[in-house]
Amino acid sequence: MGQTLMTSPHNTSAGPFPLGAAAFPHRGLLGIAGLAPHEILFLLAEAEQWVELNRQPTKRVDHLHGLTIINAFFENSTRTLLSFEIAGKRLGADVVNMQAATSSVKKGETLIDTAMTLNAMRADAIVIRHASSGAVRLISEKVDCPVLNAGDGQHEHPTQALLDALTIRHALREKGLGESFVGLTVVICGDILHSRVARSNILSLTALGANVRVCAPPALMPAEVEQMRVTPFYDFNAALKGADVVMMLRLQNERMQGQFIPSPREYRHLYGLTLDRLALAAPGALVMHPGPMNRGIEIDSNVADMHMKNGEGQSLITRQVEMGVAVRMACLEVLTRKARKLEGWDMPANNKGSWA
Amino acid sequence: MTKAAGLTITGGLLVAADGAPFPGAIRCEGDRIVALGGDVAPQDGDRVVDAGGKLIAPGLVDLGVFAIDKPAFHFGGITRAALMPDQNPPLDRSSTVRYAAQSGKPDFWVHPLAAATRGLDGTELAEVALMRDAGARAVSTGRRWIADSGIMLRLLRYCAMLDLVVVTHAEDGGITGNAVATASEMATRLGLPSAPAQAEALAVARDIALAEMAGARLHVRQVTTAAALDLIRAAQGRGVAVSAGVTPAHFMLSDTALADFRTFLRFSPPLRQEADRKAVIAAIADGTISVISSGHDPRGPEDKRLPFADAEPGMAGAETLLPLTMNLVRDGVIDMAAAFRLIATNPAALLGVDAGVLTVGAQADIALIDADRPWIVSSDKMAAQAGNTPFDRQPMQGRVLALWKGGMQVV
User: Fold this and answer.
1) ipTM, 2 dp
2) What is the domain extent for residue A22?
């Protein structure tokens, strides 16, 4: 599809995307699973304008003026909640945060009742984090507005995968390596079993054409993970060989000691990203971490702090946080287009004959 | 109907212990069957029911249910059920067992399974002999296994002496932990806490070894994996008194069905992979599995309208036990006689009750069944206390037209 066909004023990003709602025909964002590669790329393309905006001194637009966004977090979070709150506010929406400790909202009728309560308050979008896999989907079935998954149990964390992809793309561009993920070798190392970040990233990166390796000790490696089109490794050194991107996951060492790995010290011995280990990867390999980091356990400070600037340096960790706001702005803006009756988006999502 | 009147059901196909159903009639007096066969005719004063060429079968005996839910059992042609000890309070003393044993009469008989350990916590043996004399027909470990092999051995020895079958749950708790799914591609994609399917084979292997040592009779209530079925097949081959059961969910569904996180598909043991589902069907065909039961466990929204991992396991299965077993007949896995051995004769024999087969002198527990009659399951219109069925809106074939318990018509 040529550029000249992009006549809709609301597909603000230039790019080969279908017109109007066909570019992203989903009611909410529950996961990367179910998104076509061009839909992932569409969200990334949409996010670019917000990266630009966020780098201006004045960072506010009024696209979502008058809309109410509720951030319902049933699991403790600081960074993601803050990121969503800033994203909503920069778009001009009224943002309300609801933090409910996991323990008090354990029983499900309460969860569904909470969902119906939020719905009755006529939120225009609800962002949900919950400790149980599938919980966000359960809530989304009970509410009328778009639902964004900000992490459900060990299942998915789609905005994290999108922001990671956007971060990688920006770094590639900065290094003069183009835009494409095809053929890129990405290592994801850490607690793959319990990680929703790993699952969403596996789905997104493989969809975009990257070769994904996952690395974990056997107890933290999910069964049949190779069915997700990744190559599993137990040996981190072997996994690193020739890798273009190294994505470290947080070791939840408070939950894990003695159960899955003998000790954090031993974990670092086998799976910590040190300067020596990083040298095994491709020259200039990019280093990422979703945060918060356990410095000195899964990643050494001297690796984490090699921040990239003007194509130099390898660590993208703070860049990830920056891209997070832009990606969440893009998701909120795109998912509320129908409610805002934007031209081309003012029709039923998942219309028949289109892809769902 | 009053019990005193004679009853003759004519013009039906009688389900035989072996071979194809044969044309004939069955005559009852009081609560007993007094005659059956091709040449049986009604006597004066009998109430006569024309079977219209449909099946005359023994009432189903359901080994291992979690609730006494008479409307659902009657809908499903079930006239007796063995109640799991996982009640509130648990069936771990003679008083609760005696109460449970009386709770369905007269139109439904409950055969309680005595808790193997006090409070079902797997540490102290319960008063099994007292419970037997109060009406318990077998002993059960409940929803969980007994982790301590020493206690399990002592239990099996004791029950061997008392000639009671021990009904076990086969999942090694150390491996399963808080898992709600089988470790597989599906659980990995969904991010559900999962455990390897081998947790079942490990539990079965241990329990077979202990039962063999103790000379006890062991019934593994649900065997759902190829590895565990191989162990049971081998043990049966060398003469160990071990039998295996299953519920229809595990021969109808595999874990690919979990894609939508539907909690009506949360079972214990969890749904397995497709190869294991096929192994279950093969084990039903070759007789390794000798019991199919409903595992009837009606659960309301407060237990099921939850995130998958937080929901309670179990399904309301009483109404679909018969049609799903008839599927196996239609698919040529088993013949009609074998089907009723699986859902009536064999469970009755394990419980040591005089039922599950049409024979002169037995209790007149009789189901009149149209094995091909189509109907559609509807979760919100079920007879059961709750509609937690994974088969909602699915077509079934096979339905009970009439049901007699001890000669008394209940449907």
Assistant:
1) 0.89
2) 3-157+323-335
